[in-house]
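REVIEWER CHECKLIST
Item 1: Sequence provided? yes
Item 2: Single chain? yes
Item 3: Sequence as submitted:
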Amino acid sequence: DELRVSQIKSDSEPPVLPTSLALPVSVALVANIRRVVLDVGGRQEVLEDVDFDIDKRTDEYRLRLRNVTTAWGVAQGQLQVGEAAPFPVAGAIALRQEAKPGYAVNTEVAGNLDLLVFKAAAEAAGGTAGIDASIAPLSPMPLVRASGVVENIDPALLHKTLPNARLRGTFAVVRQDAG
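Item 4: Structure as written out by the authors:
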């Protein structure tokens, strides 16, 4: 009922994509794990009620996350990854926190394993935020670009030492070699 995962020493070589993710067999896995403990860098993250399935009966992997309870809330989502280069990716995840201050975050991902494009929208205590980002996961500098907007965000809701305010603004970040 409990699964423990420890951080493995990272390889000094940069990761590279394989030529294929194809398996010589079909895979169908349904899992419900009461508790997962992730030991990462001397810190533990606990996931509870992890309920998911993985299906690989065609030319793509399909993950359906029915539930995972984290310190940040409860998440559900789905993800598809193609088995052939450039490994197309599509998916969505929703994170909800009911405890005060409650919030909801919805994120979509598309692209491929060379370049992932994320679009997220969040709502909390009358405020909203949105972000669009492009990530090159295997790059030494993965963030390619990001832009976002916040409306009516109160920093005091994020941490008790922060002042009450109503923030609103936009931001944009572009990696220098991204053009």
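Item 5: Key structural point noted by reviewer: The CA atoms of residues 60 and 109 lie 16 Å apart.
Item 6: Recommendation: ____
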